[in-house]
Every structure is written in C-alpha cells, then in structure tokens.
Fold:
Amino acid sequence: MDIVRQESEAPRPESPRRRRFIARGAVVSLAAASGAGVSTGSAQAATPDNLPPNIPQWMREPGTGFLNPAYGLPSPFEKTVLRKLPDQPSPFPTATRTPLQSLFGSTTPNGLFFERHHAGVPAIDPAQHRLLLHGLVERPLLLSMKDLLRFPAVSRSHFIECSGNSMAEFKAPGKGSVQDIHGLLSGAEWTGVRLADVLREAGLLPASRWILAEGADAAAMTRSIPLAKALDDALLVYGQNGEMLRPEQGYPLRLLLPGFEGNMNIKWLRRLKVGDAPFQTREETAKYTDLMPDGTARQFTFQMGVKSVITAPSARQVLDGHGFREISGLAWSGQGRIVRVEVSIDGGRQWQAAALDGPVQSRALTRFRFPWVWSGQEAILQSRAVDEAGNVQPTRAALIASDGQNSVYHYNAIQSWKVASNGEVSNVHV
Structure:
C-alpha cells in the first residue's frame, strides 16, 4: 500500500473520500493544537492565548541572541532526545544507545550516534597522530593526517551496527524501548579516503591476504580484515556528517568497513599490518564469535544480516487516540541495498508493502513508511526487510532454529510490538 506519488505524475482529481479525509485531518490537527490527547515528549498542553488567531507570547518581544554562536545546539524543548546508557548498572559503562524512536529520516546526528568502546575514549592530538602501514608491502608508510588529507576524498552513507545489538532478544522479550533494545545502530555520511588507494601507494606483495587493524585506545583494539574487503569499499574516514569525527567515534581517524559488524570498524586507527593469514586476535577468538547449539563457534561472521525495526509506534510509547497514523521504521543490510520492506499489523499473518524513502543506498539505513488507521483494536506490528541479494529477514523462530540461543551476536529477527486496546505498546515474541 504505497501512498507516495512520484513528482513526475500528474495530480489526480481529489475524490470525495479524500476530501473527507483531509477535512477530518484538519479537525484532528486543531484538536492537537489545543493540547487534546497529545503526547510529544517534553511538550505541554498549549495555552489558549498562544493559539491562532491570537498573538503568541513569543511574538510579543524580540528573541534571544545566538543560543551558542560557536556551535549550534538543539532546542531546549528537545532535551529528552538523548543517547542512553544500558538499563543494567555497570561500574564502567562502555556503550550508549541512539534514540531511534525520536529521529527522522535515515541520518543520525553526530551527537546522538551510538558509542561503543573497550577502554574509554582517548584524547588524541591529530598533529601527533600517525598511521603506520607495514607488513607484506613494498614500501612501508608512516602517514600523518595531513598526508591522508592529500588523497582523493569520497563521501558515502553507511550504517554501523554493533554485532551485539538486540542480543537480549535471543532469550526473553526486552522490557525497554526500541532505543534500549536496538539502539546500538546509527547511520551517517562518512568522508575519507579509499583504503585501496593507500594500499596501492604502499604496494602489496603477492602473498597479501589479510590486514591487521589496530586502534590507539588503551585496549589496542585489533581485528583481522580480509584483503578483498579492503580493496572493495573500505574507507579511512576522518569526517562524519560534514564535520570531523567526534572523539567517541574515533577522532581523528577510523576504519570503515561498510556492512561489517561494528567492532571491526576500528576507531582511533594507528596501524595496518598486511599479512598472509588471519592474525587470530583476542577480539576474534575469545570474543565476537557465534556459539552454536552444538558447542562449536562460528568465526569471522563479518557481515550484518538484513534487518528492520518499526521505530514508531514502538515499545513504551502510548497511542494517544484512534484514527490515522503512520507506521515508520528503519531497514538495513550488510549485503547491499534494501529492495523491499513489508509491514504486518496482525502478527505476520498478512503482509503489505511499505514505501521506502529514497535514495536507497547500499549498506545504509533506509526509512520506510506505512499508513495505518487504528480503531482501538489490539494489534501486533511487524516489519520484514528484503535486500538486493535476496536475503529475507527471518522470524525469531527461524533464527533460533538455525543459530540456537547460546550466541549474543548477529540477532536480526523480525521485531514484534503489541499495541494494547488502551494504546500501550510493548515488546512481545510471537
């Protein structure tokens, strides 16, 4: 049920049904403006004196000067749109989660991009930072940030998802919001240089097959990278959404491997060593392997699976009235573009196509939308994504049957949100 009309199409005459829908929407809008049945985070019911045709308070006197002339800030009325620590207390928190339920489009603002680090965020002086490229190369390189900025630059949009995102769903339904459950996910436009260009500058020897990437944090985070990926679409990035990387995102330099699990996108990148085999680091032996039902562990499960989640309505939200609303969410895949998203309002018995916001890009977040009229009945909302490689997002039952419940990584099953008759939305497994 696609309600998006291409701009090239000629406008169609409005039907009586459409005119009634628009008129009904105008009445709903006026009711919302007066504060009736509205739930918008920190917003309160409107004061009648501030509603049209009256002159609102903020038009009766000049506004303030720049809120922060050096760097713009969000409105103070958006103070609840924040990253969040896990609900479980930890003596040393290592991750924050993106408020997916509060965002629009498919790009995550830099200040809300999720964090994951293993030994805190280092304070790196870019003038003293260097990237060492050595191993099976003809000409070892020691590159400054100025050196890297001389290479041809590219900008591309890609998502990053922690491989442990949604991990609790392997067991029982999480009680948190979509931010709590799926918030180790964000998308941005990245700017940097092609790793392939830098490798060509060094000259690869014939035996080259793998690359060790190492970060400059206290954990010296290291992962083995297939050379084929490095020569395909890997980037050495220094820019994020038009500005330099934030410290928690790897300032001044990080590795970006589109579609690969988040921990492989090494932040604070300081060293690349070319070798002929995987380096079998701690993070790919003791960690980041998938424990299977028979006790064996899958290693090097790099690509993130095809996945989607409805962000509105979603858990811990309350529908504030019957009638039309838009179901909206995000879809992504580590294996390419999203080609289709389907939505079900009855727990997967029937599926209908959602509209995709364009442009749909490879290994990037894609916003989908679906029109829904809620009459107060109970409903179970689901979304199911399909990527260009033909991969279909699995049901939870299918994923458990395949991978078991011992793993904590690569959970990409269909998410179910139950809408109760009173409008409360919660997480359920069906």
User: Anything to note?
Assistant: The helical segments are 16-33, 145-149, 178-182, 195-202, 227-232, 396-403. The first strand starts at residue 95 and ends at 96. The two ends are 24 Å apart (CA to CA).
